[in-house]
TrEMBL record:
Membrane-traversing stretches: none
Region forming the signal peptide: 1-22
Source superkingdom: Bacteria
NCBIfam families: 3A0109s03R
Keyword Cell inner membrane applies: no
Organism: Falsiroseomonas frigidaquae
Lineage: Bacteria, Pseudomonadati, Pseudomonadota, Alphaproteobacteria, Acetobacterales
Family named by the database record: Belongs to the phosphate/phosphite/phosphonate binding protein family.
Name by which UniProt lists this protein: Phosphate/phosphite/phosphonate ABC transporter substrate-binding protein
PANTHER family: PHOSPHONATES-BINDING PERIPLASMIC PROTEIN (PTHR35841)
Keywords: Signal
Signal among keywords: yes
Gene: phnD
Length: 331
């Protein structure tokens, strides 16, 4: 099972495009402070593994317009509309203008927050640790059902007509991944293939990168890829929107459950503003909104935001990263 991969390091990964962050100006005071794996510009005095708010008022930001970005998993045009009711609510709760920012990659989203151009965001499961450590992201919420159920599984899918029945049947074929920062789209399946099946990219199969889960799913449905590693929550929503049919795809592997997209804010927001943002997530009324229509298609359905901690809820993801020798260094 996937959990066995935690016993040892199994697959080195690249620098995850974090060279993009080299040369960014240091905005926090260069002071000695505990920080763990956080970048040198951040402090973690309370030991919760995320960056503390700056203690100096001059280093705290209180912008007139808040920039919000959703993880670049699927079509940004669709999700700008889906998120509008929540952004309107956020604007009322904070007294600020709220603008949707379309991001094309996980690396670009992390870079935007690190550079101070992004204030509130939903980072996908795999990019949360990089956002926390390199961009000062402070996750505090996650979508869940009304009874508190949450999570998704990584699946490896093949075209319905494929003769592949098992993971081993993918030797010599092309497997699509999303991006190197994605948990279900790259890190977890890469670790699984190496630790459980002794299969490595370039030696036992050809790796392709689609950029997004919906691209991977459509690629398998249209037989552009022999297989793909995807988040099944994305597949469920695509089927519900009639973007793809389940009879075009067959699942040959399903993992344990992982946490879903983590929502949070930049560490350096003025504390009073950060509190208003947190409150807006938890007092938002989902009933009848486009957000409820879209994310209620997941299984379990997303029907509210629940509080989470990075230390607890992303522990399994950090274990996968450790097993793959993933570095959180920003340069």
């Amino acid at each position: 099972m996937l959990r066995r991969l935690f016993a040892s390091s199994v697959l080195a990964t690249s620098a995850l495009a974090l060279g993009l962050f080299a040369g960014q100006p240091r905005t926090a005071a260069a002071q000695e402070c505990p920080r763990g794996t956080l970048d040198a510009r951040y402090c973690d005095r309370d030991g919760d593994l995320v960056a503390d708010a700056p203690t100096a008022a001059r280093e705290q930001v209180d912008p007139s317009t808040l920039i919000f970005a959703y993880t670049p998993v699927e079509d940004p045009a669709v999700y700008r509309t889906v998120w509008q009711p929540f952004m309107d609510h956020l604007a009322r709760e904070t007294g600020k203008r709220v603008q949707f920012f379309s991001v094309q990659s996980n690396a670009a989203q992390i870079e935007a927050m690190r550079a101070g151009r992004l204030h509130i965001a939903g980072f996908n499961t795999g990019s949360n640790p990089l956002a926390v450590n390199c961009a000062g992201f402070v996750p505090f919420a996650m979508m869940a059902s009304n009874n508190g159920a949450f999570g998704y599984e990584m699946e490896i899918i093949v075209p319905a007509s494929s003769d592949a029945q098992r993971i081993e049947d993918l030797r010599g074929r092309t497997i699509a991944f999303t991006s190197e920062t994605s948990n279900s789209g790259f890190k977890a399946p890469s670790a699984l293939l190496a630790s459980e099946f002794n299969m490595r990219a370039g030696r036992d199969f050809t790796a392709a990168f689609s950029g997004r889960h919906d691209n991977s799913i459509l690629g398998v449905a249209n037989r552009d890829y022999d297989a793909a590693a995807i988040a099944n929550s994305v597949l469920t929503r695509m089927v519900a929107r009639n973007v793809v049919r389940m009879d075009q795809i067959r699942n040959i592997y399903r993992s344990q459950s992982f946490p879903t997209t983590g929502y949070g804010h930049a560490h350096n927001l003025a504390p009073a503003l950060a509190e208003k943002i947190r409150a807006a997530f938890f007092n938002f009324n989902w009933s009848g909104t486009a957000l409820a229509t879209e994310f209620g298609k997941s299984e379990p359905p997303a029907e509210k935001f629940i509080p989470i901690t990075y230390r607890e809820h992303w522990n399994v993801v950090r274990q996968i990263d450790a097993a793959m020798d993933v570095s959180y260094a920003c340069r």
